[in-house]
Write a structure and sequence with these properties.
Elements: E1 2-8, H1 13-20, H2 22-30, H3 36-39, E2 40-41, E3 44-45, E4 47-52, E5 58-64, H4 71-77, E6 86-90, H5 92-97, E7 103-110, E8 113-116, E9 126-129, H6 133-144, E10 149-151, E11 161-171, E12 180-193, H7 196-205, E13 218-221
Antiparallel strand pairs: 1-5, 1-6, 2-3, 4-5, 7-12, 7-13, 8-9, 10-12, 11-12
Length: 227
């Protein structure tokens, strides 16, 4: 597995086009892999996420079975004169270091949603996005244990979790009769590992729905001030 970081040049027209369409960005990400088995396997898939940094920079993160070649993205939406391009590094060392009881800072953009019927007489079920902060928080906390972690508590007893950048996206999808509506939320917090194997599965396969549209990628970092 590899973790890749790509700095998006938001001043470029090509970048703005990709940022406006999760489907276009997904296609651009997969174009970095020459063969299907390079981006999707039974035990892993390619996940991506867009983060806006405090300095307003937009960073594309990709977790994938093999390292991508993002030359096309540099030409379309990056910094062609920069010597950096993109950075990919092996992810297996972090995956292998996970142990029960560890605490990690985490970030996630997800599609908090539920499946149900629109009315009692609806012929089939469909997916509905959770739109309130409370619903979106409960969506994550209710799935944590089955995915190998819990949300750590702060000194005041409250969960160490912030939900932000809550949005409703509408975009066109090829073959769709109308625009796609996608509810997303971003989460920052601290988690505690309860089952390393389950958590490794989340880190390599994602969590929740809409993974092709920039949702589901959970990333870890050392807790600030931790030992």
């Amino acid at each position: 597995m590899h973790l890749t970081r790509f700095l998006v040049n938001t001043a470029r027209r090509g970048a703005r086009k990709l940022l406006a369409s999760p489907q276009a960005m997904h296609a651009a990400v997969l174009s970095g892999f020459p063969r299907p088995e390079d981006h999707t396997r039974d035990d892993a898939r390619t996940l991506w996420r867009l983060d806006q940094q405090q300095n307003r920079q937009v960073v594309l993160y990709i977790v994938s079975p093999t390292a991508p070649d993002l030359t096309h993205l540099v030409e379309q939406a990056g910094w062609p004169t920069s010597t950096e391009g993109w950075q990919s590094r092996p992810y297996d060392r972090l995956l292998g270091s996970l142990d029960k009881g560890q605490q990690w800072a985490f970030r996630l953009t997800a599609n908090p949603s539920r499946t149900g019927r629109k009315t009692d007489t609806s012929p089939s079920s469909q997916r509905f996005g959770h739109v309130t902060a409370a619903q979106q928080t409960e969506w994550l906390t209710s799935r944590a244990e089955r995915n190998g972690f819990t949300i750590a508590s702060q000194g005041d007893g409250e969960l160490n979790l912030v939900t932000y950048n809550r949005q409703v996206h509408r975009f066109n999808r090829n073959g769709s009769k109308g625009p796609v509506t996608l509810v997303t939320a971003s989460y920052d917090g601290v988690l505690e590992v309860t089952d390393p194997a389950l958590l490794r599965g989340v880190l390599t396969r994602g969590i929740g729905h809409a993974r092709a549209y920039g949702c589901g990628l959970l990333t870890l970092a050392p807790v600030q001030g931790g030992s």
